[in-house]
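Q: Predict the assembly, please.
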Amino acid sequence: MVERRVVVVNRLGLHARAAARLVRAAHGFRSTVRLERADRAAAADAKSLLSVLLLAASRGTELVATADGADEEEALKAVCELIESGFGEMEEVGAR
Amino acid sequence: MSSRARKGRGEERLRGGAVSEGAARGRVLRVHGGARRPIFKVTLEAGEVEREARRFRAAVRLARRQLLVVKRRAERALGAEHAYIFDAHLLMLEDRKLIEDVEEVIRSERVNAEWAVKVVTDRLLAVYAEIKDEYLRGRSTDIEDVTRRVLFALSGESMTGRRLTEDAIVVAEELMPSAAAELDFARVKAIATDGGGWTSHTSIIARGLGIPAVVGLRHLYRRARTGDEIIVDARTGEVVLRPSGETAGRYDGGTGRLASARAMEAGAAADAREPLLTRDGVEIVLRANVELPAEYEGVSRFGARGIGLYRSEFLLSQRGAMPGEEEQARAYAEVAALGGEDGATVRLFDLGGDKLTTDAAESEERNPALGLRAIRYCLTHEPVLRTQVRALLRAASRARLRIVLPMISDVTDVRRARAIIEDERRSLLREGHECGRVEVGAMIEVPSAVIVADRLAREVDFFSLGTNDLVQYLLAVDRGNDEVADWFRSLHPAVLESIRRTIDAARAASIPAVVCGEMASSPAYAVVLVGLGARDLSMTAASIPRVRRALAEIEAARAAELAEECVRAATADEAEEVVRRGLGGLWPQLFSPKTLPPPKSGG
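A: Predicted assembly structure:
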């Protein structure tokens, strides 16, 4: 099992679109991927959109990501990079 | 409803947040947005539990198929960047947490699926209600929307096809995104909701479609009754319920804008039957693209010359099984009748394996856009194709129908499909059925088809240019992927040259070419298409009046000069700039800078 800490950086947090991308990404791997809030308030299966949304991870939230399985390294890397990249979002709402 | 809460039936003014532009006056249509239908608990015998779980899974599959259709429709109507929400809905539907929890409740509590869905939904919503972040908390509407869809699927009712009255103004507590996407927007004049904010789906959708919308009105839903007169002014954020004659007069006469908008629409309807000529006398035919039954009414209302594209996949979204020959024949006859003497062009099922099998994992393709879909799917699943063809030929005995073959990349596909059509025509006649003649056309949406367009033109009766897919395949840009949205450029010189080349090939072979991508529904793009030589456009019916109004004011010869300049441009940016400058300069009364598509970079 591998573990890493990440901080949610995009403005809207893990909202529907970002969460959907995260879940799609996690589905690409065989490993189990879990996300837990660093404050231990909630934990989620990264392959379940409903549980990822329930993390209520807004901007600035620190998460502990873990992956366990044959492709754990790649899975952890993919999920963490996606979160750290801010899901490639611009300041979408304000800029409209 | 308590009578105490209801004030007098006089004028009431409410102020909310304007989230789009414009103003409209019409009649209230209350839309119940939530999942708050009464749900009953039924206790099951032990032996019934597994059957109930299966019934639930079937409902989830049906809901999933419907959502795929809604998603594609939203992509077309609003663009991929706004359709993402339906991707989130799909993921919720596929979510183990939801599915397994519901099944667990069915089994452990021995209850009906509806009740189990309610229990699990309530549990989820309770957790969501605790979330502090407002935006995230707002996502609970997504969960309600998804579970409501499953409940509908369980009830066997359909959520689609809601018939709207003339000049309906939708009033809701909160408009669920998929309900919003399924409303017949051709008829919705404005939207006013109690909840919602700038980022709510309702607002995004309203802006995308250019419908006036005011949100955050608190108690409007409770105060309004269906049929009440109402003014929604998204310029000021004001909503007037049951306006007095004086207020109404002020709105119509005072601002002038509401009055002129209505006059414009009335005018459009009045001359909708007249042939559309540009100022220099070139005739342009405008047809309707149709998918959902809710869109049928708009066809004659907006003066479409028949149906230029019927997306037949819709028939598959409504039920589990493939509809049989009889049922399809009835559906096609209805669509053809709708098109009147101009009839309808039916596109064969534009499907990939992912949309037909219920088990997503089983048919996952690495690259579905380039996979076994559309004509390729039809040719490899011959019984599906033959049933559809028979239904079409039978319907054609009573009305004018054309068949268009989707995703043609090679003349061979056309020959194989035509052989099957001819084969089925003979069988039908042998069996004593009545059977009509149909014209067979090719969708031109794959670059190879553009390159061999002259050879294809000899083997088909017409071309249909699908601009959405043409852009996707020509520029190698997945139109469902936000990441590359900046590379999706309808005015890329390569796209424009391909369109022109296809139209030229059709003209040389004396066959019609209909441009039926959504590009045609934007007045600015429609002018460019006419400049490229298009004389036959098909679009969402609701767009016909504004496209008609624009094309009636232009000179085709000047549009051709403009288009020529665009084709010669080095980049998509340059072509877009030519269009922005050119249209504003040539026809400033039609194209104020605001009405033109904004520059892609920085938007």
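The CA atoms of residues 61 and 194 of chain B lie 32 Å apart. Chain B touches chain A at residues 84-85, 87-88, 91-92, 95-98, 124, 127-128, 131-133, 135-136, 139, 142-143, 198-199, 482-483 (CB under 8 Å).
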